[in-house]
Amino acid sequence: MADNTAIVPFRIDVPQAELDDLADRLARTRWAEELPADPGATPAGPVPPGWEYGVPVGYVRRLVERWRTTYDWRAWEAKLNAYPQFTTEIDGQSVHFLHVRSPEPDATPLILTHGWPTTVVEWLDVIGPLTDPRAHGGDPADAFHLVVPSVPGFGFSGPTRERGWNRFRVARAWAELMRRLGYDRYGSAGNDLGSFVAPEVGRADPAHVLGVHVTQVFSLPSGDPAELAALTEEERGKVAFADWFVQRKGGYDKLHSTEPQNVAHALADSPAGLLGWSAQLMGEFLDPDYVLTNVMIYWLTNTAASSARYYYEDAEAVPPTQKVNGRGAEPLEPTTVPLGLANFAWDFASIRTLAERDHKNIVSWNTYDRGSHFAAHDAPDLLVADIRQFFAKLR
């Protein structure tokens, strides 16, 4: 059956009954038990005191109380609805997206891909400066027309309804979305899982993608001792940190990639549980309303299961020499579309030597002394400037 290619205006309008049900569930939260804090404990690695075992009860209690009593979903709903939103069907899947055109007619089209456990909310703080630099003290030549989709299985795109929605399929969907919107030449950018998707957009649609901007390059050692020996001392330190993260902080990734449905039952039934599970990456250093709004969207759309399932689909992606279940061959050769990286201080430490193994056209590589994995929220000025300078080289 052919897709319905219509682009339909969309507006968020959550029934009050759903908000009342959420408030009732939050009021009846059954709290987890935990061990008392050990003031003499020395956490392994950069773990905040009290977070050695994971997200502490005190943090979840504080945010649940805020969620239940003072957090204003209707204000955030209105903030989101201030941007033009649409849905369309691509490859059998509903795709929700913000489409914010610049007042500058010659602006560069750019598609932004969020990660987990975030949503399109991840990009709200950069929409104004990117689309209208003239109004934010910038050069109008740096303007972008923005397309900000919800990844299939996430947020207002709703749950996926069939297998196979991995990074490659999402990238092909994004290429079709940009074609459907009439953009012949465009850029692709992303964070977190968006940093996996964005380069694949360039690989899927090289004739139309100007360049790819990411905040992480997830290139890790292949296991070849000679490759590891060729790294600098600083780069070997980054490898050691990546190993630590996988071993001590990567439990969510392992579970999502192997048996995501195991945790999905709890996340779909308990808003406090969904908050705790999401907070393992967002933590207490981010604005609590930013955390709650992202969690709120997963709750309202019941996409905890399908967003976790994305990791399984990505782990099971078909190698390039095989064609199974019609999913097709997925290329693994180095990318050739121009690539730019903005690496922030409290984030995955991208390794240039290994990145050059997987991407043959790196034209911009910048590191910053502030900002986190959620730089679009906590260092938007740096991210905006980096995106601007990267694409200015390619226009």
From TrEMBL:
Asked whether the keyword Hydrolase is assigned, the reply is yes
The protein's GO terms of the molecular function aspect are: hydrolase activity
Q: Which domain of life is it from?
A: Bacteria
Keyword vocabulary terms for this entry: Aromatic hydrocarbons catabolism, Hydrolase
Q: Which InterPro entries match?
A: AB_hydrolase_fold, Epox_hydrolase-like, Epoxide_hydro_N, Epoxide_hydrolase
Q: A Pfam family this protein belongs to?
A: EHN
Domain named Epoxide hydrolase N-terminal: residues: 8-123
- Has the keyword Hydrolase been applied to this entry? yes
Family as reported in the entry's similarity comment: Belongs to the peptidase S33 family.
What is the protein named?
Answer: Epoxide hydrolase
What is the native source organism of this protein? Micromonospora solifontis
